[in-house]
Structures are given as C-alpha cells and as structure tokens.
Amino acid sequence: MITKPLIKMEKVSKKFPNVIALDNVDFSLIKGEIHALLGENGAGKTTLMKILFGMLKPDSGTIYINGKKVNITSPRDAMQHKIGMVHQHFMLVDSLTVLENIALSYEKKPIIDYNEIEKKIKEISERYNFYVDPKSKIWQLSVGEQQKVEIIKALCGDVDVLILDEPTSVLTPIEVEELFKALNAMRKQGKSIIFITHKLDEAISISDRITVLRKGKVVGVVKPSEVTKSDLVKMMVGREIAEMINKDKYKSNENNIPLVEVENLVVFNDRGLVAVNGASFVLYPGEILGIAGITGNGQRELAEALIGARRVSHGKIKILGINTTNKKTRDIIKLGVSYIPEDRIRFGILPNLSVTENLLLTNYDDPRFSRKLTVNYHSFRNVALNLIKEFNIVTPNLQTPAKFLSGGNLQKLLIARSAVKEPKLIIVSNPTSGLDVATVALVHEWLIRMKKKNVGIILISEDLEEIIKLSDKIIVLKEGKITGNFVGEAKITEVATAMTTKVST
Amino acid sequence: MRVKLEKRVQISKYEIIAVRIASIVLALLSIGLLFIVSGIDPFYAYSVILSGVFGSTFGISEVIVKSIPIGLCSLGLSLAYTAKVWNIGSDGQLIMGAIFATWVALFSNFPQVLILPSMFLAGFIGGLVWATVPAFLKSKYNVNEVIVTLMMNYISLNLLDYLLSGPWRGHGVFNYPITDEFPKFARLPSIPGTRIHYPTLILLILLTFLILFVMNRTKFGLEIKAMGDNLEAARISGIDTFKNSLIVMMISGGLAGIAGVGEAAGIQYRLIRNISPGYGYSAIIPAWIGGFNPVVVLVASLFVSALFVGGNIAKVSLGLSYGLINVFNGVILIFLISSEYLVGYRVRIEWT
Ligand SMILES: Nc1ncnc2c1ncn2[C@@H]1O[C@H](COP(=O)(O)OP(=O)(O)OP(=O)(O)O)[C@@H](O)[C@H]1O
Ligand SMILES: [Mg+2]
Fold first, then answer.
1. Could you tell me which residues are beta bridge partners of residue A68?
2. Contact A111, A169 (CB under 8 A)
3. Is B291 contained in some domain?
C-alpha cells in the first residue's frame, strides 16, 4: 500500500539576491513519521522549512496538505493547518516567564486566561515527560530548557506536524535522549515530525526517512536502514570526509613559561550568584585544555572573566605572565587573546551589519588595516575574501548583513574572525555547534594547526567526543567547581562521571 | 470580519515606496477633511500652501532657514541613535548653546574678530555640557537617558526664563523678556534678501559629510554601529561602551548647541524666550526617517522644515489658528511614522 503523504512540497524554488537557496525541491512527509532533513550549512534546510511555515514566500512551487493544494502565506496560516515550528535560533522574550511567552503566541482574546494555558502546559509536559517550570523567567533557564519551552510552545498549538530546526545542537546527551523519547511518543500518537540535524547518528537512529539537500537541490530520499554514515556524508558533501586529527602524544610543556595561570578564581553570574567557585588551572603554549561540563555550570562566566568582560571577585588570572585580573577587555585582547563566545546570536554577531564589519569587530585595531583613527576597509577586503574562502563561509557577498547567513555560516564567521590576528590564546565555546560534518573537520583541523603553532587553546564544549579527541588536558566544571582533572588520554566514561558528580558544598 | 496585522517576512523596494506614498496621500486626504470641517476648500488651501512654500523664493529660503537648526540637531541625534543612546534633549541643548553664545556676544570682552568663532565654540560647549549630565548619569549609574535629557529640557527653559526676566534683560526693551540686540560683529551674515545665515548652513553641510565619514570610515564609527546592533557583542569584543555612549551624547549635544548659535546670531540677533519653537523635538523625526544616514537625514530635515513653513503660510494666508496648524503637522507625521511601522506588516482582512 502506498501511503499518501500528509504534506507534499512540489518543485519549490527560492532565490535570494545572489544565491539560489532552493532549486526545484520536492519534499514529502507521511503521517506518523519522523523525517530527518540533512545537508551542509547553507544547503537550504531552514529556508525550505520557513517556506512550509509561511515565513518565506517561495518564488515558485506548490504545497499540498492531504492532497489539497494550500496557500500558506504566514505562520498563522501554518498554525491553522496544524503545523508548528521550533526555530534554529530561539524566539523567546528573555524577561518574561515561560507561561507569558507561551501566552504571547497563542492567546487571541484580549484578556489572557493564564490558568487555561498553564493547564495546557502541564498536560503536554505530562504526556511527553517534558518538564519546565511555567513560572520561571526565560533568562533563568539553560539553553536546553529554553529549547524545551520552544517545543512546548509549538505543541500548545495542537499541531499535527512539528518542525524542529537543529534542536539538538544545544542539548546535552541526556537532554537529547529525553527529546527523542518525547518524539517517539509523538510519533506513536500519529504526529509527524521534521527534524533538521547535523548529527548523522541522530538522523539514523530516530528517523523513518531522510531527505538530503545539497546546495539547494534534493540529492536523495533514503531510509536509514539502507545507508551508512559515510553514504550520507557523500550525499551531503559530494565527497568523503576523513578527519585528519593527529593529536601528537601529550608532552609535558611544563618547563615553558605558562600561558595562562588561574588561581582560586571566584566569579559571579548575572543573577549575582557564584558561577565560578575557586577554579585553578594552568595552560602552557601549544596545549589544548578542554573544559567539559554541561552548559550553564560556569563556563561562560569563566571565559568572560578571562577576557576581562566580567568582574573577578576573588582570585587571580595571569596571561603571559602578566596579571590580567579585572583588566580591560581591550587590553587583554591586545595581548593576543581571541574569544569565540557560546551563544553566537547573543554575544557574537552584529545582525544588521555586513559580513565585513562582523569580521572587523575584534580586528579593526590591527595596524595592517587601520590607522590611528580610521579603518581601511579597502585593505581589509582581501583579508576578508581569503577568510571566506579558507573557512568556506557561504555568503552572497561581503556587504550582506550577517542576519541573512545560515546558522552554520554565522559560526564559521565567528571562527574566521578570531583567526585574523595571530592569536596566542584562543578561548572557544562550543566551536562546532550547528556545523556540518565537513566544517567540523575544518574547524578541528584549524584548532590543531593553531596548537602546533604553539597557540594555547581553552576549548569549552558540551560535546565530550570533541573534547576527548582534541584536548591534551581536561578539566570538568560542575556548578562552578572543578570536579575532574585529566592529563593526557582520558576515557569518555571517566569524564562523563565527573560531569555528573555531586558537588559537595 | 476581522482585520489583522501580520508581520511581513520580505519587503520589496517598491512596496516600501508604495507604502510611503500611500501614507502621504492618506494624510493629505484626512487633512482635507479637517479643512472642510473648518469651512475651507481643501483644493484652494493646498494650492495656497504649495505655491507659498515652493512657488516663491521666500518660501524656499524659509525652508532652508528652518532646516538649519533641525538638520544640526538631527545630525547629532543620528549619531547618538546609531549607538542606541536615546537623546531626547536636543531642544534644551540648543537653548544652552544659544545662552552660551549670547554671553560671548553681549558680555565677553573678546576682540571683535574672534567673537563669532568664539560664539560657535561656546555654543558647542554649552550643548555638550548640557548633554554631559545625562550622559554621565547613564554610563556611570545606568540612569535612563530618555528621562534625564527630557528633564534637562525643562531646566534649560527655566534658566532661559530666569536670565531673560532678570540679569540679561535688555535696557531698551521695556519689559519684554529679551536681551539687547547683538552688536554687528556678533551677527552672522545672510544671503541677501533671505534669512539664510550661510555660515551655519555651510557648517551644517560640512558636518553632514564629516559625520558620514566618521560613521563609515573610522574605528569610532564601527564601534558605535556595533554597539547599536549588539551591545553585548560589542562589550565582549573590547569596545569601551561607556566611553562611547558618553562621547556620542556629548557630540549630539554640541551639534544642537551650534543650532542654538545659528538661531541667536543668524535669525534673532538676540536671545529670546522662543529661541526654539521645538526644533530639538522635531529633529527626532528626520533622524528616524533618514535611518540615521547623515545625507538622507539632511534631506528629511528639509522635508520636516517644509512642513513648518507650510504651516506658517497657512496661518497667515488662510487665517488658521496656530493650534490647527500643529494638528496638521501632527497628522502628517503620524501617518509617516506609522507607515514606518506598517512597512514591516501587512493588513489582512478575514471574512468569517
Ligand atoms: N533572508 C535571506 N536573505 C538572503 N540570503 C538568505 C536569506 N536566508 C537565507 N539565505 C541564504 O540562503 C542559503 C540557505 O540558507 P539556510 O538558512 O536555508 O541554510 P541551512 O541549510 O539552514 O544551513 P545551516 O545548517 O547553516 O543552518 C544560504 O546561503 C543563506 O545565506
Ligand atoms: Mg539552518
């Protein structure tokens, strides 16, 4: 029996200035299936889904729901057709509570019936084992919890089709498991799910079918049982990717002068609570220090203290032998420190400014392309063009506002930005979140290359495999304390255990 | 039936232009209704106003005259707004500029050739000092600059009242709250037959291009654009956001101060209570319409000043009250500003 698709998108095309984002794409979704959508950064995954959700108008093509041609011109239309979407970049209001955020997108009457919405949230939470406190404010939640809020928000609209745009790039392994359980439960109830991811294992393990996009074209629709990971890579990138990590065996560098010395550091977070609680470590040039731990355990505060963007309330930081405790960010950056922050939209990107200006943000002081007061945009042009080539950034041109770049390309932009100067110390948070396999390899290779040039790297990541693969030393951060310390080879299980250790107070 | 606003995802250039034109047409139609209610033939009224503003050298020259203070204030505001520093106090800063310049003109004993340059300098400093207070409170104690700049407007107005009713009141002016006329060497020359005090006009044009240069070519320009777009990212990249918001606020105050010098030394030749009929407030509009781009802002200033002049002409030749004129100008601006918002949305009517 041939199942008739619930949703069919036929010959959908979408052009943006200078890019063809989608070129005659066909896509179908069957009732009760989980359908993974794969493709390189900038392949057009988000664009295709935004069209289905009524946020973008296709240049051509038709959408059928249950065999009937429909015209979806706004998210409101999409919701009327029972389609919900969780976006790659969250769209929650920070200062409002979970409840208020959800009310904001659903309540149509002028007087909001909070009790009713709360009941709804509770019902959904119970049905899918998905709990968040409706009364907490968004800014108090971790990224993973915010992701849950977005999903609950989408489900509150009684959807039959749920689109998830890279839901797992911000989740911890445990949270991913939880999410998958919920998705399975939804599938059982006959809901259909479109799931965008860069993690091939996930796609293979949870989906019923996989559609692969490359440069705006469908390369194939496959069943996970019929393909291997490397088949998928080949479909996505058009060639095989062999990640060439030759991390030399760890050699103690301890006769050298230390690059970073952190002693007994205490730092508070935005809420005024202790975020880093007495951390000490030393980093030598040419080392990669992995900081493992679940996001929200003091990583951001530690990194910001290191670059002088957050007050150190106790303890000491020395970089290159110079005391940099509570020094100005500008002066610390001048010592040769590059920082790639964890939340690129909030802390990294200038959305309305051009690609060039974004690349210049941390580099306009460089005498190669500036004078005392002025910036020489002209001489930066070639540097920018080279970066775009080196880091494979997909952008129509250098003048394009950053907000028009795909998620992965924004991440590449941040990494490219930190490569302009020859840094001595790189502090990087979740460098490969949201990147496709090819680009992950590219970034990893870049980090190793930097390390070989004797650059010291502090690699903060939730991705344990990444940390283990790259680091010479690993510390584990839990509730602001160092709960694990590994030198040389470390086992994934040991590190994972340290990540979940109870912190004694 | 329900009428709904929906966020527009994409906007084409033509749609933007169409919305703008439609908003002006709608504004003129609604004002037409007001004319009819007041017993005036709207076609006659519009033809009088249009020929008054654009059909005579006087009209055109007056548009330029008023665009000088509006443009100067607007230019400074564009700089501040680019960094998302919300200065609402141009009017007070303009008044302080005029006060400082008046002191130089009437009470300093500077050599005559130095008087005019000193007046500009003093006016710049006057506006700048006035803006420093809110700027300092904002960067040091995070006090909302909107409130403080607004309050400072009232303080400057009271200071002006005090000076004009006492210490600075002129000798030969009976009891009017005005100062003596400035001596000849403290007056700005005008283009003959008009009130266009061209030194200030030239200054305005030079400053427009200077600020364009600052925004697009300097480190400082990049820094304030970054601050305005993502303050958190700017801070983490090592930009001194405190210092920069202080600077943009002070410069925008200084430019408003210069506008005050122009009014005192180029138009009134003395300090009067009504030295600014709200130029500092009106200047907020061209800054927004022009998207903080100095050259576009300059053009938008001309437009806003044409509204001012059109209003004056309507008052004189149609015998309308000043209040009604303000209503007309308000209507046009409300339509324009709401179109700014509507461009991002579309109206949808659902028949149910
Ligand atoms: N509003 C826009 N204006 C101009 N170009 C755009 C716009 N939105 C997307 N693009 C371009 O369209 C292409 C596809 O983008 P899309 O966001 O769909 O990629 P993606 O597959 O979701 O990538 P990622 O995995 O990095 O999120 C990219 O080259 C992007 O730069
Ligand atoms: Mg995407």
1. A65
2. no
3. no
Same domain, B23 and B144: no
Asked if this assembly's ipTM is beyond 0.90, the reply is: no
A224 lines ligand 1 (CB under 6 A): no
Q: Give this prediction's pTM.
A: 0.86
The pLDDT confidence band at residue A1, using thresholds 50, 70 and 90, is: very low
Residue B294 lies in a domain: no
**Same structural domain, B25 and B148:** no
| Minimal Cβ distance to A56: which of B7, B9, B237 | B9
What mean pLDDT value characterizes chain B?
89
Using the mean position of ligand 2's atoms as its centre, give its distance from the Cα of residue A79 in Å.
Answer: 21
- Within-domain flag for B287: no
Amino acid, single-letter form, for residue B175: N
**Mutation for testing the A interface, residue in B236, B243, B247 having most A CBs under 10 Å:** B236
> Edge-to-edge strands of the sheet including A7-16?
A19-29, A7-16, A60-65, A68-70
Could you tell me if A329 lies within 8 Å of chain B, comparing CB atoms? Answer: yes
Question: What atom in ligand 1 is closest to the CA of residue A43?
Answer: 21
- Judged by CB atoms closer than 8 Å, whether chains meet at B222 and A56 is answered as no
**Pair B345, B244 in one domain:** no
Q: List C-alpha distances in Å: B107 to A281, B274, B280.
A: 67, 21, 26
Q: How many domains does chain B have?
A: 2
Among B247, B278, B309, residue at a domain's last position: B278
In tens, the pLDDT along A132-145 reads 888 888 887 877 78
Which residues does B contribute to its contact with A (CB < 8 Å)?
4, 6-7, 9-10, 217-222, 225-226, 229-230, 232-240, 348
User: In whole angstroms, how far apart are CA B333 and each of B20, B40, B80?
Assistant: 12, 22, 22
Lookup result for tokens 């000193």 = B118
- The domain in which residue B95 lies consists of 75-278
Query: Smallest Cβ distance to B218: which of A74, A308, A374?
Result: A374
Q: Is A309 on the interface with B (CB under 8 A)?
A: yes
In DSSP terms, B272 is beta-bridged to B178
Cβ distance B217 to A375 less than 8 Å, yes or no, reads yes
Helix (H) or strand (E) holding B304: helix B294-318
Q: What is the largest CA-CA distance in chain A?
A: 73
**Contacting residues of B for A360, CB less than 8 Å apart:** 222
| B115 and B248 inside one domain | yes
Average pLDDT over residues A385-409: 91
Residue A429 parent element (H or E): strand A425-429
What's the DSSP call for residue A134? T
Asked if B222 and A375 come within 8 Å (Cβ–Cβ), the reply is yes
Q: Which of A307, A329, A360 sits opposite B222 (nearest CB)?
A: A360
Contact assessment for residue A113 and residue A77, using Cβ atoms and an 8 Å cutoff: no
Predicted pLDDT at A176: 87
Regarding whether B103 and B34 lie in a shared domain, the answer is no
Kindly state whether residues B111 and B253 are assigned to the same domain.
yes
Is A407 within 8 Å of A41 (Cβ atoms)?
A: yes
CA of A45 to the centre of ligand 2 (A): 6
Whether residue B180 is found in the same domain as residue B239: yes
Query: Which of B278, B305, B333 corresponds to the end of one domain?
Result: B278
The amino acid at B153: N
Contact B6 A347 (CB under 8 A): no
Same domain, B26 and B134: no
Q: How many beta-carbon contacts under 8 Å exist across A and B?
A: 83
Name the residue at shortest CA distance from atom 16 of ligand 1: A44
What share of chain A in percent tops pLDDT 90?
50
Q: Would residue B267 count as lying in a domain?
A: yes
